[in-house]
Amino acid sequence: MFAEVIVDIAHTAVDRRFTYRIPEALPVALGHHVLVPFGQGNHTKEGFVVALKETADYPNIKEIARIIERYPVLTAEQIALAEWMKDAYHCLFVDALRLMIPAQMRGMRVKEKKVRTVKLADGLDLDAAFLALSKAPSQKRILELVAKIGAEASIPDLNAFYPNCTASVNALIHRGFLIEQSETVFRRPGRVVIHKPAYTLTEAQANAADAIRAAVEQRKGDVLLLHGVTGSGKTEVYLKAIEDCLAIGRKAIVLVPEISLTPQTVGRFTDRFGDRIAVLHSRLSPGERFDEWRRIRLGLSEIVIGARSAIFAPVDDLGLVIIDEEHESSYQSESTPRYLAGEIAAKRVRETGGALVLGSATPSLMSYSRALSGKYRLLELPDRVAGRPLPTVEIVNMRDELLMGNNSIFSDKLAERLSECLGMGQQVMLFINRRGYATFVSCRSCGFVLKCDNCDISMTYHKTESRTRCHYCGAVKPLPKECPSCKKPFIKQFGVGTEQVEEAVHRLFPAVRTLRMDTDTMREKGSYEKLLSAFHRGEAQVLIGTQMIAKGHDFPNVTLVGVVAADTTLNLPDYRAPERTFQLLTQVAGRAGRDNLPGRVVLQTYEPNHPIIRFAKTQDYVSYFHYEIMERKKLLYPPFSLFLRVVFADRSEDAAEKACLHYAKELEAALKTTLGEEGKQDLLLLVAAQAPIARISGHARYQIVLKLLRTRRLKDAVKTVSEFHDLHRTDCEDVQLEINPQEMF
Ligand code: ADP
Ligand code: ZN
Predict the structure, then answer these.
(1) Which of 170, 222, 225, 530 has its CA 20 to 30 A from that of 473?
(2) Ligand nearest to C-alpha 475
(3) Spatial contact of 279 and 224, defined as CB atoms under 8 Å apart
(4) Which atom of ligand 1 lies nearest, measured to the CA of 200?
(5) How would you list the strands of the sheet with 178-185, edge to edge?
(6) Which atom of ligand 1 is least distant from the CA of 554?
């Protein structure tokens, strides 16, 4: 027998199947992780068996050296998926395969954990043994304990009863009274259980769950879009759908954005499904990740809950994939292969005959369009559960506040709502899309703006550190006392950040305890969980934060949400700015009044008549969708087109610019050939210019922005760009191709 092996080296030149002979004694199967001799010096390399065959086309074939894990690490479905990704994302086969196993398994950097266990020797005469131990009371105690346990006992467990008993245990083994064994244990991440009663589903929830069950049973790989307002009970629908899926013996994967993968979310699933769940996210230790992955691979868990990359979990007979908050940009991978979790999920359920559920209160324009055109099945939860109203949204025009002489952070309205809510002992979330104390530092006399020395970015003032910080490279600078340019003492901080909001709350309500959540307070491992559970337990009444606090959280006692500056994200120079603002405002607003207490939202803005602000007031997704899709159509923005970007960064301005212009010229020619006469119009835009942020960390930046019309030729055009990118040689230090870039700066 022979095996086709993909060697674990990420290089185009060796990204193909190599044939190896399988030695007689080695039980190699499809998907095994193996060691093989490779190259001229026959150094051993790791590889993956992606096919088995009876014959080889040429003589003198090398042999597989050994198997690494006893079981095949890849399933046949995963191998096929990786092969498909190779074309779909223009990546190496091995790049795709690497996504399917925990990173630390490569290079054998993580091992199974074994513990020593002991049990009574077979046919042991206990009475005789106790008699023999009359002079060794500590050994006797242990033997008694093991006898009482009546099963295998681990050494750590025995030590918990009788500290430092290992020597006595060894003596008992030596006497032949106990038999030693060892047992593999699974390191499991700490678990929280959030108990919620088993609700009777509302009619809308039950209909949605039924539709999902039917799709799982029909095995057609259907995609369903669950559009439910915030607090409509989407999670409850997921739980029921999973229950139904497990009941027919199939398995499920649930994806949530990394940021909402909190103990609260996992806790609700754990409450319902207990040990049948495996969890995969970035906060696990390598050992925990390996063990959770193995529990899935070995069929010891039936539900996987995790962030983006959990879509590759080795689940067999996958019946259901749920992607919560499907509109989140974190479902798109930022590094090679640049996959979309939703696309992978759709592909997997097509292969396994499952169903894919996309859930959101604010679906992406693409998903909702597909639902309207019938490509996806649309399921709707138009109301909150239990007749709870959506929160009342009040818009405050901050210009009017200024005219009335109020130039503080809080409008009179927000201050009034704050004192009402705090007075009743309820909780508040205050949202500001900016960390630090002030956005920028500038001179009121000459207009000088304090900038980072390495980046083309203004410095942000952090009061707690009493200095300024660059949010791109982390560089710090003291706050100048006088203007470095005109030397006058008129340096002032402008704009409002999280720190300043916190200070303002303390000034108005000195007795109230607050918590602040932004990337500055979240640097330590575990701080995110700690802070959220402190707020959950009511240890603070006010939670102030950036978008970190906007998503997914379910705090029953929060009745007021204040958005300090609703338009900060609205006017960014990015076509997605309105969409992101609407999503964000709907999500934050959705945190209010999720339990029995009704919720209120105060949105402070300088543009109360902006359509997006008005849609956010009514939280009317459908009207918003029709408005936004018309706007996109007018300017042929996505989903009617696709953006691509190539970023050039180099310490030398000249090198970056030259590389960029040269690349652009050649790329344009290549694209014209691919698109041909007929597709000439598809290339809507190709500009090469200095990037809007001209310098980051001391590197000059240039970029090419491409806009391609979405036609049947798009796939070929993207392939042309990817292939061109791979083959293009340049002297520029760093050249990155981004398909559907998340930022345009
Ligand atoms: P969503 O994910 O749509 O924002 P959740 O699933 O978190 O909403 O549900 C909102 C709240 O309503 C939660 O506290 C949940 O426990 C509760 N809930 C869900 N379904 C029901 C129901 N059928 N009856 C009563 N309460 C429910
Ligand atoms: Zn910087």
Answers:
(1) 530
(2) 2
(3) no
(4) 23
(5) 153-154, 113-120, 178-185
(6) 7
Q: Report the distance separating Cα 338 and Cα 738, nearest Å.
A: 8
Q: Work out the number of other CB atoms within 10 angstroms of the CB of residue 514.
A: 18
Q: In this structure, which ligand is nearest to the CA of 699? A: 2
The alpha carbon of 701 and the centre of ligand 2 are apart by a number of angstroms equal to: 13
Rounded to two decimals, the pTM is: 0.87
Tell whether ligand 1 has an atom less than 6 A from the beta carbon of residue 382.
Answer: no
DSSP 236-289: HHHHHHHHHHHHTT-EEEEE--GGG--HHHHHHHHHHHGGGEEEE-TTS-HHHH
**pLDDT for position 551:** 72
What are the tens digits of pLDDT across the range 261-317? 777 788 889 999 999 999 998 888 899 999 999 999 999 999 999 999 999 999 999
Location of structure tokens 């589903």: 201
Question: Which residues does the chain have with pLDDT short of 70?
Answer: 259-260, 435-438, 552, 573
Å from CA of 56 to ligand 2 middle: 57
pLDDT at 438: 67
CA separation, residue 416 to residues 354, 426, 629 (Å): 51, 14, 37
Ligand 1 atom closest to 268 (CA): 16
SS3 of residue 430 by DSSP: strand
Helix 714-727 vs helix 653-675: crossing angle, to nearest 10 = 140
CA dihedral 436, 437, 438, 444 (to 10 degrees): -140
H or E stretch covering 421: helix 412-423
Do 743 and 736 touch, CB atoms closer than 8 A? no
719: Cα separation from own chain's centroid: 27
DSSP letters, 545-576, are ESGGGTSS---TTEEEEEES-TTTTTTSSSTT
> Distances from the Cα of 565 to the Cαs of 176, 324, 502, 539, in angstroms?
75, 27, 14, 26
Backbone conformation region of residue 219, classed left if phi is above 0, alpha if psi is from -120 to 50, else beta: left
**CA–centroid distance, residue 595 to ligand 1 (Å):** 8
Which amino acid is located at 324 in the chain? Answer: D
Query: Quick check: CB of 554 below 6 Å from ligand 1?
Result: yes
The pLDDT, as a whole number, for residue 573 is 67
Q: What is the DSSP letter of 449?
A: B
Q: Give the model's pLDDT for residue 437.
A: 66
For the CA of 230, the nearest ligand: 1
Q: How remote is the CA of residue 698 from the centroid of ligand 2, in Å?
A: 8
Residue 199, ligand 1, Cβ within 6 A: yes
CA–CA gap between residue 102 and residue 98 (Å, rounded): 8
Ligand 1 probe mutation, 225, 227, 235, 595, most atoms within 8 A of CB: 235
84 CB neighbour count, 10 Å cutoff: 15
pLDDT at 691 (0 to 100)? 87
Q: Which atom of ligand 1 is nearest to the CA of 590?
A: 4
Instruction: Please state, in angstroms and rounded to a whole number, the distance separating the CA atoms of residues 653 and 657.
Output: 6
Question: Tens digits of per-residue pLDDT, 73-95?
Answer: 999 999 999 999 998 888 999 99
362: three-class secondary structure by DSSP: coil
Counting ligand 1 atoms within 8 A of each CB, the residue from 194, 325, 554 with the most, and so the one to mutate, is 554
Question: 382 CA to middle of ligand 1, Å?
Answer: 13
